[in-house]
Amino acid sequence: MLNAPEASRTGRVVTAALVIVVALILQVSVANRLPLPGGVQPDLVLLAVVALALVSGSMTGMVTGFLAGLAADIVPPADHTLGRYALVYCLIGYLCGIASAEMDRQSLVPFLAVAAGALAGAVLYAATGMILGDPRAEWGTVSRMVPLQVVYDVIASPFVVWAVLRVTRRYERGERARGDRFAVPAARYRAMSGRSGSL
Amino acid sequence: MKDTRRTRVVLGALLVAALAMITVDYRGGAQSPLRGLRGLGATVFGPVERASAAVVRPVGNTFDAVTDAPGERRRADRLERENQRLREQLRAGRLDQDRSAQLQRLLGTAGMGGYKIRAAQVISAGQGFEDTVTIDVGSRNGVRADMTVMSAAGLVGRVTRVGPATATVLLATDQTSSVGSRLEDSKEIGIVQGRGRRGLGNGGTALRFQLLDAAAPIRVGQRLVTLGSQAERPYVPGVPIGVIERIDGASGLTRTAYVRPFVRFTSLDVVAVVVAPPKIDPRDAVLPPAPKPAPTPTPSGSPSPGASKSGAPKARPSGTRRPSKTPTPGD
């Protein structure tokens, strides 16, 4: 299967889809039900999108982000304007994909990227809510929740990033030999997060 | 990136698509043309969530109590669910009895109903700023939009969207939720609004009560029941909401108080959808027995409404059972 480029591409798409679906289901049925202090939960889907974008580049990042966001918009308990997460995750996927090309070999950088992505995602989502006049996204709530959300996201990020790297590694190996445009950031990122992978 | 141009084109297209969806959905409101997409989401993800809840629960249960065998815990869950159903039946029956006794005394007639309910389980919760949960009953089980959702302890929320096998519940703590409510043993009415994040933020009190008559008497410790909406949709009358915990000074036309709900929203597990409203407003009869000799109309020896899974022990006799022990970390 890894011999043919088409099959490998299919494999990558399937892997990304699987990662997103699993993250989404874990998000709604496990993470969102944790009674964490402050009533805020880590955003596993956002972390998965960031990790996939860092591994695979901006194109994959934004398409994955858009589709993941759309899924997050329609997954049953969702009750916000449709398209908000699609917009936010698409942008975050794109930005993290761009950032993955610029990253150098320091083990701290991926974590900073994840933290920055989490912050940007939380702020953007709150901003869309404010623009639409969502009563849930009033300033008092947002200013209290966003910092806490970023903290939880950063705490949860090593686990999500590690899991995404584990799952995608299989397909990256076949591609590194072929040396397409996704291989370089992927190899870099994997080399960088090799230490975090042993957590 | 050698593909920057193409990447930017795709990015632009996706962003335009997202913005278009937001615009269409926002403009459309409840009649949005994109609601079919949500229906698709419920159809596709609903069964997956049910399955994952089934998988996640036993895992969390073993995590929670190492000594308990998972099989035993499963049985306990089943019994708990059955217990809830029987308790609701008992309560409905008792309500019926009390009502009929009263009415026989007063009018010489009989025959009143309580709430007709369908037990359900919470399988997932909402993301971001919204306080919503999914329950594992849907249109196949006779659940429709705008039905009241309650637990053994009191009001949980209302059904907003229904899929084939799942339904979305807007919790009473959500910031967009407002419930018409009434102080116990008085006719004073007001609106209970959610304060977000299942009561974990904002200093602990999950609900805010706005008394419409600023001059009306109100005191700490008074309890609230639902007033009942027009045609009993979305809220049926008489469902206990919570206890007044703190009262703000009168400001302007209304008076604001903060309410501690009977239901603990962070550990919702077994709930019930009211599929048929009571034939008669139960008034204060469903409230748990008061800690002091309260002038509730019935002697209200019924242990059933007091048997709560909520963390509101002060308002209840200590002898009541505590059926739910918040099994999973996911609860």
Name the poorly predicted regions of chain A: 1-6, 174-184, 194-199
CATH fold name of the largest domain in chain B, please? Thrombin, subunit H
Q: Name the helicity range of chain A.
A: over 70%
Question: What is Rg of chain B?
Answer: 22 Å
State the helicity of chain B in percent bands. 25-40%
Q: What is the residue-mean pLDDT of chain B, rounded to a whole number?
A: 72
Q: Largest sheet of chain B, described in full?
A: 6 strands, antiparallel, barrel
CATH architecture of chain A: Orthogonal Bundle
Please report the first level of CATH classification, the CATH class of chain A: Mainly Alpha
Write the H/E string of chain A, N to C: HHHHHHHH
What does this structure look like?
The complex is a heterodimer of chains A (199) and B (331). Chain A has 8 helices and no strands. Chain A is globular. Chain A has helices spanning 5-29, 44-56, 58-74, 84-102, 109-131, 139-178, 183-192, 194-197. In chain A, helix 1 packs antiparallel against helix 6 (139-178), helix 2 packs antiparallel against helix 3 (58-74) and helix 6 crosses helix 7. Chain B is of the alpha+beta class. Chain B folds into 2 domains: 36-171 and 264-315, Thrombin, subunit H, CATH 2.40.10.340; 178-259, Thrombin, subunit H (Beta Barrel). Chain B has 3 helices and 12 strands, in the order αααββββββββββββ. Chains A and B meet through helix 1, helix 3, helix 4, helix 5 and helix 6 of A and helix 1, helix 2, strand 1, strand 2 and strand 5 of B.
